[in-house]
Structures
1.
Amino acid sequence: MGEGIGPVYGAYRPAVAAVQWVPMSDVSRYLPLSQRPRRDESGVTGDWSERLAAVLTSLAALVDGLAPEARAGVHDDLARLVWRLRATRRERATAALSRRSPRALSDDLPALLRAVTTDSARRRPLGDLAAAVITALDVAEATGSPIDIDPVTLGAVAVARALNAPLPIRAVLRDVTLVAIDGDWFVGRGPESRSLGASIVLFLYGRTGLPPAYDGEQEENHG
């Protein structure tokens, strides 16, 4: 998948008027933006496997470094993610209908995460990437460990989530624009509030309240 910088398009405003964003990076090449200018889209792909592999590799490295007690505390989150990524569509549908929890997996979850990255024959939708990103952020928050996720990956997940978030989240996005200070993307409408991309994603998934706003000095120090 190409990593070049694409053209800058105008703000995208869906019918729900809950999200607007300016895709200044290659996110615009992989999301279906119906209102962008017409051009050759023969290279557009819905396969997010490369970005998923990058997230899983970082997550596996994080888990490798955890103490046994900390690893046990996030085992279920990791097990659910691995099950989802290995399951077929039919298995996912059956589990959703029966509301079954994933079966217990091997304790060597980092190895299972890395094994998923080698499945090059399977195309990965944005939903799989989103599941990996939010799990990685959850694990990082729960264990107090840093994890590095590409800003384009965070932006793609954030935009997709904002379009389909629960009504309370979308209601907030009608009144505030959440701008990622570490990525070329934003979601929402209204006055700007600038914060870290990971914090915005955690808010969109209901893990936290509104992310803390950064002022100019804090942004400079972060950069």
2.
Amino acid sequence: MDNHINRLKRNILCAPSKKSQENCYTCKEKDSLTIPDQNTKVYAVSQEILSGKLLYEFKTIEAMVKIYCKAHHKETTWADCQDCQEFLAYAHEKLDRCPYGQNKPTCNKCPVHCYKPHMRAKAKEIMVYGGPRMLLPHPIMAIKHLLAERQPVPGKPPAAASNRHQRIKIKQVDSN
């Protein structure tokens, strides 16, 4: 349980579960999908950590991953797929630490490539497959994503604009 909470404190997302009896897919601990004091799903942490445009971006990539996983990993369900859950956790962490913060351009237009090369290739594969197929199950999300790709790319990211830096600033102000 300590490992799970430490991962939560480091803002690494653990995967969702349909049943609380299942193991956490990230840290493999039994019934660790709930935070002991708050009794909330760890997966809901993404809504506490990310907000605004970053949360919407995460929901978009999550929808694409679901479509991709359903077609490519037929032996497991989306919630049980270790590869897809690890990718989503990685994407969540990178969105949280994006140097552009709430002014983040879409990843394919971004001049700062924060993904590691193998994860960037996986993200591209997922987006190439899931993006066009997102139009039927998530039409509004797909159209908004296409419109976001047409926005101009901002210049150099401002210092300490990432979502993570903003949370740290708030914590420092609250502690003083």
3.
Amino acid sequence: MFGRGLINRAVATFIAGGAAFVAMVALGATVYYLLALVVPPLAAAAITSGLFAVIALIIALVFVRRAHGEDEEEDQEPESLGMRAVHLFQDRPLLGVAAALAGGFIFLRNPALATMVAAAFTEKSRQRRR
């Protein structure tokens, strides 16, 4: 079905957004109640809202910078398997989370595999330099 993947992505996005909203509300309440122990409640509310406004401003500036393309992208291919994985997971963070969960499960089931994978990631490139 053509739209099934799109619908799954939309549902996953809404679930992630809802979870992020709940987490931010819980964090805000925690910060407020911790500040309310030290300062009057009105000041705690002002400090909490100011803190979250600064966080929102920082996040907005990061995304605006990315939208304008100020981030320099490397033209060269990363030389090791580890560097390729880092760049792939930077471009696609959900893929990184899924790979980490799957890798953790596999490593719990077979610890010898963990040593082989670690050796592959730390192995130096065998290409000769000129």
4.
Amino acid sequence: MEQVTLVIQILVSAVFVYVGFGKISGNRAFRRAFIKWRLPYWLLVLTGFLEMIAGLLLLMGLLIQGLALYGLLLLFCICIGAIFTHVRVKDDMQEMLPIIVLFVFVLFLFLFSL
């Protein structure tokens, strides 16, 4: 089980660093999504930074015990915010599925890090 947790931790951290970088760099798809959700541009950039920081904390947690927990707590909050945003604008399940899957992985990692 420890190896499964390790793989999930690396994948989740990579996804959030990648997606966070896309938001910071002003990726057109993310800009369109935030416009659709009626969210300001500064929140796109802030979310991107927070996702990158959380992903890096999760990754560094492999070397420095305790850092992963901070990353997971931040990712938990980001995922909850994202899910509420999708629900608020009545997105269909296909659009919500990626963040729901990531949220489940974050919960899994949190439970197995205790």
